């Protein structure tokens, strides 16, 4: 265990806070920036944020764990979200969900062993007229067929 | 007619729904294929005819000629066939304004969406933008509130509360600091109008919020957008920057005494943050726990200050009301449901998209008329109106007019106007179970009926479907639903029984029960 990476994490987090500190209710913008820069909210980040924002660790932990977006482990190189809300259910989302889990060998919220893909479920991507919908990182796909889903899950494609 | 040397303007949507089915590739293809001929590709919002996306429009002497749905691999053939001159082709739909699906609508809030470049301030003003704010600033805040009240505008987010009354409450509250918050946490399945307005005409939301700030005496505004909408976030952030450079935001807006700053905030993937008090907590940097009301947000809202909280479509309707007058808006609609509503057709529907029309259109006209039935070609079995907390209605109720009061009388709700269509393969016990499961997953956990009730609801439905002591368990489910309805702090637990009870009432066979047993 070296102290160097921890040190740099702390610097990174403190500089993120410095950038957003003046915003009202700054914790959410800060957590989004942490996600953007680090890919996840490492549990080690929580005491640093608590210290910077004069909050208790419990308060920060409570916020981090309330929101689905603020994951606490490193995600895969690609995050695939499958919409499971009603409009997509009506056009076969359940089959896509089963297909993705079977193909990757993970359930929702998990990352494949090789670190390639994180599979998540999402409830509505606002593409309800031309579902089923899948989001890959920030890119939205509509009318997703089983064949297209296979291509989206293939991280080497 | 445009000759071969004249620049041809081609419109391709940048709306994320259009992009989800290849609009970016189509736009690139058009630009590349037309090499040699001067061409201008304008990325617009979507017209809302989503089954035709990607929809390409070409400006000709005869108006904008539409082609769709255009797959990226169709582009070369289309250009060779003379698309840039509006020539005939199997994908040619004719002048876009003449397509009956669009022509028969009354586009008020969505008037500019799909027509203009969403980030062009010139387009915005050329199509009537900023006229509402200019007129508002020539009136007193009291007069602006009166105009909004007279228009009959009700909150489009689902609750249908009169906007003018809310604004008046904030205006009359004593405080040196007040806020305007736009609830753009459009988490309900089957709704996408907020997203499309933000991506297709962001300035109208900015203008509406600025008018609200003038009316209420607010200095700061926040647009809370869900993180599932990255394109809407990016579009609004850019639009706000442009608005500042134009003097549409910031100090002394349009030379007036109004100063107003506007910020975009991004949600964290929590459905409950679409509930207004939960959203306010989230904006304050906290867990999105629902607040008890009173105090109402109009008096003690964001950071305890008087706050206007309205939905995207509510605020987006305001500029037109101020520009054209309350009467022009109130002329549309029926009863106490005035103006137009932006209905959204989704799910298993042949022609899904945005139908903006006056209140009073029947559910059947929307689903069978505009929607054209199911995409699968099978019979429609049910539609869910108003999101995951709305009722499932059978086709025998297709005579219902889309009107807040008529729907309430039928134990249903118009909500935000989202309609999700299901064909005859749907299992209604499964849908009822999902409603409870969703509530259990997304409950903020503050009140017991919602937090625990939803978990018990899943279990009871499982027992009913499994055939365990059905009469007793049906009674239990009904009691549980009543308790959640009456005892929950907010609409999440309070309305989850609506899809459950409606599924049970209209489709008892799916629960393995007879009507006799339910009594």
From TrEMBL, chain A:
Highest rank taxon of the organism: Bacteria
PROSITE patterns: COMPLEX1_24K
Residues annotated for [2Fe-2S] cluster binding in this entry: 83, 88, 124, 128
Keyword tags: 2Fe-2S, Iron, Iron-sulfur, Metal-binding
Cofactor(s), names only, from the UniProt record: [2Fe-2S] cluster
UniProt cross-references to InterPro entries, sorted A to Z: NADP_DH_HndA-like, NuoE-like, NuoE_N, Thioredoxin-like_sf
Cofactor note: Binds 1 [2Fe-2S] cluster.
Gene Ontology molecular function: any one: oxidoreductase activity
Keyword Iron-sulfur: yes
Family: Belongs to the complex I 24 kDa subunit family.
Protein name: Formate dehydrogenase gamma subunit
From TrEMBL, chain B:
Gene3D superfamilies, per database record: 3.10.20.600, 6.10.250.1450, NADH-ubiquinone oxidoreductase 51kDa subunit, NADH-ubiquinone oxidoreductase 51kDa subunit, iron-sulphur binding domain
Identification of the protein by name: Formate dehydrogenase beta subunit
Signal peptide, first to last residue: none
Pfam families linked: Complex1_51K (PF01512), NADH_4Fe-4S (PF10589)
The organism's place on the tree of life at top rank: Bacteria
GO molecular function: 4 iron, 4 sulfur cluster binding; FMN binding; metal ion binding; NADH dehydrogenase (ubiquinone) activity
UniProt domain NADH-ubiquinone oxidoreductase 51kDa subunit iron-sulphur binding: residue ranges: 429-474
PROSITE patterns linked: COMPLEX1_51K_2 (PS00645)
Keywords: 4Fe-4S, Iron, Iron-sulfur, Metal-binding
Organism: Streptosporangium subroseum
Keyword Nucleotide-binding part of the UniProt annotation: no
InterPro entries reported for this sequence: NADH-UbQ_OxRdtase_51kDa_CS, Nuo51_FMN-bd, Nuo51_FMN-bd_sf, Nuop51_4Fe4S-bd, Nuop51_4Fe4S-bd_sf
Recorded family membership: Belongs to the complex I 51 kDa subunit family.
């Amino acid at each position: 265990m070296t102290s160097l990476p921890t040190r740099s994490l702390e610097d990174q987090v403190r500089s993120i806070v410095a950038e957003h500190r003046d915003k009202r209710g700054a914790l959410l913008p800060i957590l989004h920036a942490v996600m953007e820069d680090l890919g996840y909210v490492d549990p080690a980040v929580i005491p640093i944020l608590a210290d910077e924002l004069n909050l208790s660790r419990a308060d920060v932990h409570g916020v981090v764990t309330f929101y689905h977006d603020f994951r606490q482990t490193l995600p895969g190189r690609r995050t695939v979200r499958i919409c499971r809300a009603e409009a997509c259910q009506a056009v076969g989302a359940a089959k896509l969900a089963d297909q993705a889990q079977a193909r990757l060998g993970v359930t929702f919220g998990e990352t494949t062993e090789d670190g390639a893909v994180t599979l998540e479920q999402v409830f509505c991507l606002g593409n309800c007229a031309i579902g089923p919908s899948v989001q890959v990182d920030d890119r939205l796909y509509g009318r997703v067929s089983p064949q297209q889903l296979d291509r989206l899950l293939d991280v080497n494609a | 007619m445009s000759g071969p040397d004249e620049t041809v303007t081609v419109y391709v949507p940048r709306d994320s729904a259009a992009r989800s089915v290849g609009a970016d590739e189509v736009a690139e293809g058009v630009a590349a294929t037309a090499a040699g001929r001067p061409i201008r590709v304008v990325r617009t919002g979507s017209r809302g005819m989503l089954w035709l996306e990607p929809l390409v429009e070409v400006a000709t002497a005869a108006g904008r000629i539409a082609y769709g749905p255009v797959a990226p691999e169709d582009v070369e053939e289309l250009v060779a066939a003379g698309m840039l001159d509006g020539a005939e082709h199997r994908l040619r739909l004719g002048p876009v304004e003449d397509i009956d699906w669009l022509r028969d609508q009354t586009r008020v809030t969505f008037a500019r969406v799909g027509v203009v470049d969403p980030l062009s301030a010139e387009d915005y003003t050329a199509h009537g933008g900023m006229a509402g704010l200019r007129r508002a600033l020539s009136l007193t805040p009291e007069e602006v509130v009166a105009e909004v009240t007279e228009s009959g505008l009700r909150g489009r987010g689902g609750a249908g509360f009169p906007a003018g009354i809310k604004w008046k409450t904030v205006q009359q509250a004593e405080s040196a600091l007040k806020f305007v918050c736009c609830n753009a946490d459009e988490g309900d399945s089957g709704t996408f109008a907020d997203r499309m307005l933000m991506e297709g005409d962001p300035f109208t939301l900015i203008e509406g919020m600025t008018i609200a700030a003038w009316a209420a005496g607010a200095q700061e505004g926040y647009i809370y957008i869900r993180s599932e909408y990255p394109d809407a976030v990016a579009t609004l952030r850019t639009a706000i920057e442009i608005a500042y450079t134009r003097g549409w935001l910031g100090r002394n807006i349009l030379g007036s005494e109004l100063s107003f700053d506007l910020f975009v905030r991004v949600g964290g993937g929590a459905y409950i943050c679409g509930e207004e008090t939960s959203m306010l907590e989230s904006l304050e940097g906290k867990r999105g726990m629902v607040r008890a009301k009173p105090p109402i947000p109009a008096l003690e809202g964001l950071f305890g200050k008087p706050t206007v909280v309205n939905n995207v479509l509510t605020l987006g309707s305001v500029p037109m009301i101020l520009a054209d007058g309350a009467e022009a808006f109130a002329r549309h609609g029926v009863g106490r449901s005035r103006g137009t509503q932006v209905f959204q057709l989704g799910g298993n529907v042949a022609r899904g998209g945005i139908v903006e029309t006056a209140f009073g259109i029947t559910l059947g006209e929307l689903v069978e008329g505009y929607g054209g039935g199911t995409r699968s070609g099978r019979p429609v079995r049910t539609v869910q109106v108003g999101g995951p907390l709305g009722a499932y209605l059978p086709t025998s109720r297709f005579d219902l007019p889309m009107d807040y009061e008529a729907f309430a009388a039928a134990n249903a709700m118009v909500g935000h106007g989202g309609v999700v269509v299901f064909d005859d393969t749907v299992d209604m016990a499964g849908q009822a179970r999902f409603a409870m499961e969703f509530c259990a997953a997304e409950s903020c956990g503050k009140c017991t009926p919602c937090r625990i009730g939803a978990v018990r609801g899943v279990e009871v439905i499982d027992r009913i479907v499994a055939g365990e002591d059905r009469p007793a368990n049906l009674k239990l489910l009904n009691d549980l639903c009543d308790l959640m309805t009456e005892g929950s702090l907010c609409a999440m637990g309070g309305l989850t029984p609506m899809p459950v009870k409606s599924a049970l009432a209209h489709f008892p066979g799916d629960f393995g029960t007879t009507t006799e047993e339910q009594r």
